[in-house]
User: Fold these one by one.
Assistant:
Number 1:
Amino acid sequence: MEYLANLAYVFKTQGGQDYEYGDLLSTSLFVHVDINPASRAFKTSAGLATNFQYEQKHTDKGSEVRDSGGTTLLMGPDITIKANDRISVFGSLMFPVHQDLGGEHQELDYVWSAGGRLAF
């Protein structure tokens, strides 16, 4: 079993016309289990992806923007395929478990991501 985690905090500064987006905290946890551990090529692992996001309220000309900020918790399946020790592809499909969007926002139906890794 493999555990991966990350944490990112984005500091926002005041932009044009005295508008400032709220700072953003995003943290993720991935738990993987090897599906074919004996394989030398195209080793596959599947698991659960979890992401928590918190955004502070935005401000416009020093006043808090009511319909901004909030928290979201997403969870869903995750898969990684390693061609070898240097090359892999991955993907996840997460669905909202909790959404407190801080006002009138469009709610998320799902979030998917895909990518690749190349180690030098």
Number 2:
Amino acid sequence: MAKQPEKIDKYGEVSLIARGGMGAVYKAMHPTLNRPIILKKLTLRGKSAFAERFRREARILMDFRHDDIVTVFDHFKQGSSYYIVMEFVEGNSLEGLIKEQRYLDSVIAAYIVLHVAKALGYAHRRGVVHRDIKPANLLISRTGAIKLADFGIAASADDVDSGLTSEGMTLGTPSYMAPEQFENSKNVDARADIYALGVMAYEMSTGKRPFSGGFSPELITAKQKGRYPRPARIVPGIARPLRRIIRKTMRSSRKRRIDTVDPIIKEANRILRSYNRVEVRDRLAALVRGDKDLKPLQPRRRGGKMLAASLLGGAAAILLGLGIYLSTALHPLFLTDTHGKFRLELRIPDVAVQESLKPEGVKIFLDDGKEIPLLLEPLLVRIPNFADDEGIRYTSRPFFLPARGYRLKIILPGEVYWQSFTLSSYRKQKLQETPGTHLIQLQAPESQPLSLRWDLRDALTGAALTEGTELQVETPNGLETYPFAEPGRSLATGRVWRFHISHPGYERQIFSLFLSPKETLLNLRAELLPIPATLRIVAGEEAPSVTVNGSETVDLYYRSNPDTNDSFTIAPFNLKELSTIEGGRLKLAPGSYRIESSIKDEQARVDLNLESGRETTIYISAADGVPIIERR
């Protein structure tokens, strides 16, 4: 074993903390700051890429100055080894804290998420993507300070084509990596860090990782599909803003994932605004120190302030409402000849296309012949209980404006509607049937031919399903069958289509979706579940526990709505809850299963081949401390 040095460069009082194949970590004393520091050592001969990563981490962190990121004081080379000198954080990592506490309450988790998000926002604004966000790289001091560490595989915009991360290279920790990071770690952006932060928030809140295991096809597929147990099913009572953070950050498609930390900070603050931040930090520090008998965090008492705010808010609302009323009611009395009443009304002709024409914004400009300044942006409200055959109607509140020329801009999905109009005086408007109402009847876009591409797969194996697959489409004449080789025949946009997809030996799936007139290409991917087999387990009151294929958890078929005979979905089921299943009948994927039951050193087992659509019954009991499994 190598002898521990008493001094490294100018740093004395050296003590070894950890040693690995690539180097070591020491605690030492800074000679001028007179405080403990960390010496991170790398010893790799002939590995220039690793050395360059090490130096780059030092360069990145030496330029950073943020309360939530570890501070680097220096870096140097001594002999054949490289060193980084960074601040010493006395406490624990988030990984260690989760192991000790099992999971953290929503307030503490939100506090940690908030500080990590701020650290990431700081790094992202400087063109740095961490690429390895995980609990082990988050340090928490005994005073509650939170420090993001280990930028060893970070990507920096300043390192142009450094060659450290080549196309197709995968870097990171699989359980926390974003789906796109498996394909190519070189070109990931801030959204990869945001995804990993979501995974970390999930783990803090539940004590479990949404995706576990190493680098495997199963883990990658699960991440690409975005399938993981919802956190509230594991730990009920997780704060809603924290659940929103997890949902928005862990979207498998990075196009749909939030791309900045700002929404995360906003949601975390929603939880923390009712608590004293100092008390929250003190609680986190107490958890790190391992203090016992901690009292629950209590929200701040805000009764007096809330009452005052409510009274002020109520008074303001009354005054505002009175102002609007007087403006609307009194203008006609005094400005009959100079001003006119204006109310905007939009009508959408067909309920089926309401989403494609739903207004996103309205702006009214003054037509002064020069700069056309923005005058107001009316808020549109949908009028309820309007007959479906007359379409959908939106309206604004009335305004009294000078009688003159204006321009109207209506922003619709994918298009903009412009119109110039002249507002008449209220005296002239009274001669009209609907005085002051500016009615616009939006025309539905013309229907376009619809092309259909489809990809049908076995939901369990991912194998393609082609021969024997049948696609049926609901039409006014009933269900019409479309051969697999002729997709898209005679279909058109601008309406709701219902597709029935079936394959021999598999559960039928129904897709019901509206296609706007502009959506002319439908890519339909269906993953069909094999028709399930039924395993009926009859267990006596004294029956021992049972496992299936070595696990107490099985993937069980469920119908989301049994009353409507909806398609099956699969979700994990704990066999300890077998008594909750009517008749003990488990719907499982067809295939080979090993059923085992044990009492101390005694064990019984049976191997079964479950077939689609068929029921197999086994009886589990015990006699004289010996488990018994019988198939009948």
